[in-house]
Amino acid sequence: LTGVTGYLTGVTGDTVPPQVTQEQLRAAEAALALKQDLIDRLKAEAERQRAALETIPVLQAQADIYRADFEAERAAREQLHGQREALQEELNQLRLRLGGDGA
């Protein structure tokens, strides 16, 4: 407290009553506690953000795998559909030929 009083006396050039110094000290300590709380909360948030950033590449890799799997399944379905259409057309042609030969 003596250091604070000396500092305030040096800054203002006047003698500061001890009551004012005590009030200022309490206010400064309260402000310091609030700042420390803010720092702690910001550090915790930074840690949460860092952890989230570490999971992004893993999730991106999963999404890439799912996308590739989906595209492969779609290509296979399209190919099967094309084969089915070709077989259906071939069946229709054979039926026409069989129907024409028997007449």
TrEMBL record:
What keywords does the record list, in alphabetical order?
A: Coiled coil
Coiled-coil ranges per UniProt = 25-97
The GO biological-process annotations, alphabetized, read as: positive regulation of canonical NF-kappaB signal transduction
One Pfam family this sequence matches: CC2-LZ
* Gene3D superfamilies, per database record: Nemo cc2-lz domain - 1d5 darpin complex
Coiled coil recorded as keyword: yes
GO function terms (MF aspect) = K63-linked polyubiquitin modification-dependent protein binding
Q: Name one GO cellular component term.
A: IkappaB kinase complex
Question: Which domain of life does the UniProt lineage start with?
Answer: Eukaryota
InterPro entries per UniProt: CC2-LZ_dom, Optineurin/NFkB_EssMod
Give residue ranges for domain NF-kappa-B essential modulator NEMO CC2-LZ: 22-95
* Name of the protein in its database record: NEMO protein
From which source organism is this entry?
Answer: Hippolais icterina (icterine warbler)
